[in-house]
Design brief:
alpha/beta; binds nicotinamide-adenine-dinucleotide; 3-stranded mixed sheet; 2 domains; Rossmann fold; binds fe (ii) ion; 15 helices
């Protein structure tokens, strides 16, 4: 098949080595025990904090420790523990109502990506008028939101450092994102000990999400930023994120399988918390692309998790993008420790094979067929996905409906060779 490499609308493609954008919290704290820093971060902002979480996390020793530390520091704590995975709008309404009564100076998100996203949209609606729908899309939040301290308990979404919050709106067929630099939390506190106790399936799927964040941001299209204008939230592959993405890929390569096999392995948990953070610092500015775009349709049709979908699709996405990012994939082969071959093409084969092997080892199926996708639905998925311009246009190759369909067909069959530009045995 023929693959067309994407070019910048604003001129010739510039290398990832020549420009960079990073938007980050004002402090990112990482390490075992870092939970104890939260009162110190909250205190300069005032004396009232609201914790947004869910019922499961509300019952954990981590939350009890957080609450006790805040109260010892003289901070009045209010708890909203009715968070629900995937953040339905009704839960956002409840959280905002609770927050208006509590009048917090700071909102603390404590939990997986769903609790962090709930904290972010609650902070948004305390500062700016609703409905939330008015902010769906990119760069529509008009100004700063209430300070958020984001404390993740899963290693995957990286929401603690990203400019995104994802919610479920019953009026919409797919989940919707609000993307704005103003949604980057003020503080990220990543204490790997909080991920202990995370169910293995959540660890596996959110770990696959982190791997997809690292690899899609690394291989995103390269665009020349229009510096004189408001930049898009996701600017494409860039130099500042590249190092972080590669750091994440290497750490995930050596720790994700271990977390799934031995969930009590402290070193592996710490490595995954670090990797998820690095991957998100990269994707928060570079953005993701085809796997994340295609997952919207697949997830809605099969009711499978975001991490499962982007993980399943990842080897196919890398294969189709490979003509546009050979340098990046050679670096991936290096950090995954599979760069023994002398021939560049074989090294890239080995890198993509290793990604597929990680995904397989953590129990994610290798084909769309296995998760119940009907082959006859693939053209409709390709057509839907081609409308997700923000993600599709961030790919390093021109991803029209025909190309998206080929990726879906290869993913359904489980045959990456269908996507190779140079036919031949591996
Ligand atoms: N904002 C972003 O940048 C971003 C990026 C990717 C995904 N997301 C969103 O994040 C959500 C998924 O987040 P997630 O995968 O972290 O899972 P989640 O927050 O939906 O949590 C899943 C389940 O795991 C439980 N859990 C979490 N941590 C635990 C722990 N340490 N111990 C025991 N149970 C624990 C939760 O209580 C919940 O029941 C989706 O809505 C997705 O769209 C957001
Ligand atoms: Fe993701």
């Amino acid at each position: 098949m023929t693959i067309e490499i994407a070019s910048s609308g604003a001129g010739p493609i510039v290398g990832a080595g020549t420009t960079g954008v990073l938007r980050l919290p004002r402090q990112v704290l990482f390490g075992r025990g870092s939970l104890e820093s939260v009162p110190v971060l909250v205190r300069p902002h005032g004396r009232r904090a609201l914790i947004c979480t869910d019922a499961t996390m509300a019952a954990t020793p981590g939350l009890a420790a957080l609450r006790a530390a805040l109260e010892r520091a003289g901070i009045e704590v209010s708890l909203f523990a009715d968070g629900v995975p995937e953040v339905p709008l009704t839960v956002v309404d409840d959280s905002v109502r609770h927050a208006r009564a509590a009048r917090p100076d700071v909102i603390i998100g404590f939990g997986g990506g769903s609790s962090l996203d709930l904290a972010k949209v609650t902070a948004l609606l305390l500062e700016h008028p609703g409905p939330l729908e008015g902010y769906y899309g990119e760069n529509l939040v008009p100004g700063p939101v209430l300070p958020v301290v984001a404390v993740p308990t899963t290693a995957g979404t990286g929401s603690e450092v990203t400019p995104v919050a994802v919610v479920s709106d019953p009026q919409r067929q797919f989940k919707v994102g609000i993307s704005s630099p103003y949604l980057v939390p003020a503080y990220a506190v990543v204490d790997p000990d909080l991920t202990h106790g995370c169910p293995v399936i959540v660890s596996a799927h959110s770990g696959a999400d982190a791997l997809a964040h690292a690899l899609e941001s690394l291989t995103a299209g390269r665009r020349r930023p229009a510096w004189q204008s408001t930049l898009p939230v996701f600017v494409g592959a860039n130099r500042l994120g590249q190092t972080l993405a590669l750091e994440a890929v290497g750490a995930i390569g050596s720790s994700l399988r271990e977390v799934v096999v031995s969930p009590d392995d402290r070193d592996a948990r710490t490595a995954m918390a670090h990797a998820s953070l690095c991957a998100a610092m990269s994707f928060g500015s570079a953005g993701t692309h085809l796997g994340h775009a295609l997952q919207y349709s697949i997830g809605a049709a099969t009711h499978t998790s975001h991490g499962l979908g982007v993980g399943l699709l990842l080897p196919y996405v890398l294969e189709v993008c490979r003509p546009a990012c050979t340098d990046e994939l050679l670096l991936v082969a290096d950090v995954l420790g599979v760069a023994a071959a002398t021939d560049a093409d074989r090294r890239i084969d080995a890198a993509i094979d290793e990604v597929a092997s990680i995904i397989d080892a953590i129990g994610i199926p290798g084909t769309l067929r296995e998760i119940g996708v009907d082959r006859a639905d693939l053209p409709a998925f390709a057509a839907q996905t081609s409308t997700f311009g923000r993600l599709v246009d961030n790919a390093p190759v021109v991803a029209d409906e025909a190309l998206l369909l080929r990726v879906l067909e290869a993913s359904w069959e489980g045959d990456r060779d269908m996507l190779r530009t140079v036919p031949g045995p591996r």
